[in-house]
Amino acid sequence: MNTGTALQPADNTCLIIYDWNQRTEYSPLTSVLDLVVALTNSDLAHLYRMDPAADELRLHSASSTPEDSRIPRVSLEFTSILQRWTDYTQPRVVIPGDPDYSRFPETLVSEYSSLLAFQLHAESVHDRFAGMLTVCRRTGLPYNDAEIASAGRLCVALVASMKEFDRQQEVAQLREKLRSAREENLLLEKRLAERKLVERAKGLLQTHYGWTEESAYYHLRRTSRQQRTPMAAIAQRIIDVIAAREMERERLSA
User: Fold this and answer.
1) Domain 175-253, what fold?
2) What are the distances in angstroms from CA 103 to CA 97, 118, 205?
3) Run means of pLDDT, 10 residues per run, the chain, 254 residues
4) Is the pTM of this model over 0.70?
5) Architecture in CATH for domain 15-143
């Protein structure tokens, strides 16, 4: 199995990373990409997501068309030749022989007769580069104007799906934080209840047996270790025993 080696980005460059094993399975995005493939008579479509913090374009989603995954991860550096395309406002058609053809990861995975690339911009954020859509076909003529227009119209749907995906991820993260907070709160409540039991048991031992606070605590801890039982459980037993004795004493004195 051949594997591309990641390159370290130099100044004013970024990486485009094709990692088939790390793609996101999100049905709305896959459906739009499948529609792009159908309308353009293509073999597959890829959606790359821009990570501004790392200056990386990463494969985010792909059409459901079976893909040749002999190269599961490829990292290519954006050279000045390839980087200039991100400034274009029009889609690009790249064919074998074009200087940029070999700089798209798809061309290292399989041989294509034509590759169509669109830049994507974040919705409601003017001129912010959000990602890239690539559509490929293995046989046939280069993409015509009608096919390019059809794919271009779906770019808006892709950006909207990306936004919805992000929203769902944020909701999922908030739910996980809420679940963790609830679990932590329950744990704190449990520890507080256990501490109250221990303190109550210590007080009863001091009152009924004249022990010091240190002696009462030592008795609880030693019994807990000897019986391999939580100290709170030992404390509850002591509370129950002393309470039962008190009830019996009251019964006999009545």
Assistant:
1) Arc Repressor Mutant, subunit A (1.10.10)
2) 12, 15, 79
3) 38 73 87 93 90 80 75 68 53 85 81 88 65 89 90 88 88 93 93 93 91 92 92 92 86 78
4) no
5) 2-Layer Sandwich (3.30)
